[in-house]
């Protein structure tokens, strides 16, 4: 990272922290003191703090595992320090059970884009792609795929395609197609918690379609970190063995486990309201860009499937970052966060998350913020800010 990039990163961090109005305030952007204070404030409501601390996965970690299994309706779950490790353990276990090291997944799935080839490098697995379209594969694509595979992995939602989900009927059909091929089904459910609105089904019904599922505690639930792998007792036991081999048998993890329990208690019940309001925000963003005379813009999906979605604009990412920071500094409103230019030439994208802070925004607030933002883009009339 260049000195200029570091300076902008620090400026953006300070601008966002200083903004009085934001659509989301992720815990990961908090100070150490703020995180510790939140942990202390909420811990007693989810766990008896007079009990002995955890040691190599007992105590509060076991309590969290029981809670997750209960929520998801599985026989068991195992805590992991990261989702990358949890899925390594799951997919490696399924490879041994099915006799196939081949995992069918989307090319935009997390292991393909964000894990430096870990499935092949660490676990000796090979991946294939039933589709390259910016959506999860359809049943006919899974059924007719020309190569054999032992496991079908579905990321719910598919983050890098805009946090998109199939319909409930489409998901059931895809799972059925995998079963016809004698493949097992694993859900990458890092953000599974907020999928219930789109599917119109409780978590247990969604998880029941798969043979295993991984969930994250630091994304939707705003925990410190960590993940869980859930499924049958025998699979989870095997995954615990791989967890140890991969270096995940950590002496004490009570801060992470406590923050996960707090997230389950406090954030999980609120996620449906975030999803619902994200649709209001997305519609107002589209209206705001149209009213501001931006030549082209896209909110994707137009009606978000979860409480997160993408916004695309025909500007350089650096210019959009600067407008984002200036708006936060000059108006106290931070509409966006970080922009990336890693899409089609001439277009940049940002991800929008709507959480508790965003519930205070009306559609009028959003449109007003869009006008302020556009006024700070290259070629705009600064007098309209």
Automatic annotation (TrEMBL):
InterPro entries: ArAA_b-elim_lyase/Thr_aldolase, PyrdxlP-dep_Trfase, PyrdxlP-dep_Trfase_major, PyrdxlP-dep_Trfase_small. GO terms for biological process: glycine biosynthetic process; L-threonine catabolic process. It comes from Streptomyces tsukubensis. Residues 57-299 form the Aromatic amino acid beta-eliminating lyase/threonine aldolase domain. The lineage of its organism: Bacteria, Bacillati, Actinomycetota, Actinomycetes, Kitasatosporales. It comes from the Bacteria. Pfam families: Beta_elim_lyase. Gene3D superfamilies: Aspartate Aminotransferase, domain 1, Type I PLP-dependent aspartate aminotransferase-like (Major domain). Belongs to the threonine aldolase family. The keyword Repeat does not apply. GO terms for cellular component: cytosol. This is Threonine aldolase. Its cofactor is pyridoxal 5'-phosphate. Keywords: Pyridoxal phosphate.
């Amino acid at each position: 990272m260049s000195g200029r990039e570091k300076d902008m990163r620090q400026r953006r961090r300070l601008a966002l922290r200083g903004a009085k109005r934001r659509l989301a305030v992720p815990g990961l952007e908090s100070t150490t003191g703020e995180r510790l204070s939140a942990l202390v404030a909420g811990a007693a409501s989810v766990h008896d703090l007079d009990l002995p601390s955890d040691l190599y996965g007992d105590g509060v970690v076991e309590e969290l595992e029981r809670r997750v299994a209960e929520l998801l309706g599985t026989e068991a779950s195992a805590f992991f320090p990261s989702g990358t490790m949890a899925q390594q353990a799951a997919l490696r276990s399924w490879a041994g059970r099915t006799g196939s090291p081949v995992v069918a997944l989307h090319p935009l799935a997390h292991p393909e884009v964000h894990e430096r080839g870990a499935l092949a490098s660490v676990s000796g697995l090979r991946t294939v792609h039933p589709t390259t379209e910016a959506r999860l594969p359809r049943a006919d694509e899974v059924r007719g795929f020309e190569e054999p595979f032992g496991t079908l992995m579905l990321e719910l939602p598919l983050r890098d395609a805009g946090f998109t989900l199939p319909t409930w009927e489409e998901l059931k059909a895809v799972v059925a197609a995998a079963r016809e091929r004698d493949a097992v089904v694993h859900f990458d459910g890092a953000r599974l918690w907020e999928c219930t609105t789109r599917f119109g089904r409780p978590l247990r019904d969604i998880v029941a379609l798969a043979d295993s599922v991984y969930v994250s505690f630091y994304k939707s639930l705003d925990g410190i970190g960590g993940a869980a792998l859930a499924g049958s007792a025998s699979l989870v036991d095997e995954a615990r063995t791989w967890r140890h081999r991969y270096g995940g048998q950590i002496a004490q993890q009570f801060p992470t486990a406590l923050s996960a329990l707090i997230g389950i208690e406090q954030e999980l019940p609120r996620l449906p309201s975030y999803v619902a309001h994200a649709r209001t925000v997305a519609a107002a963003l589209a209206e705001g860009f149209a009213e501001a005379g931006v030549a082209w813009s896209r909110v994707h999906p137009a009606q978000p499937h979860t409480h997160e979605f993408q916004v695309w604009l025909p500007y350089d990412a650096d210019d959009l970052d600067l407008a984002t920071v200036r708006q936060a500094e000059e108006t106290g409103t931070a509409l966006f966060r970080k922009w990336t230019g890693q899409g089609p030439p001439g277009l940049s994208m940002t991800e929008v998350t709507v959480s508790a802070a965003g519930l205070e925004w009306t559609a009028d607030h959003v449109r007003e913020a869009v006008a302020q933002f556009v006024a700070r883009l290259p070629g705009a009339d600064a007098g309209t800010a």
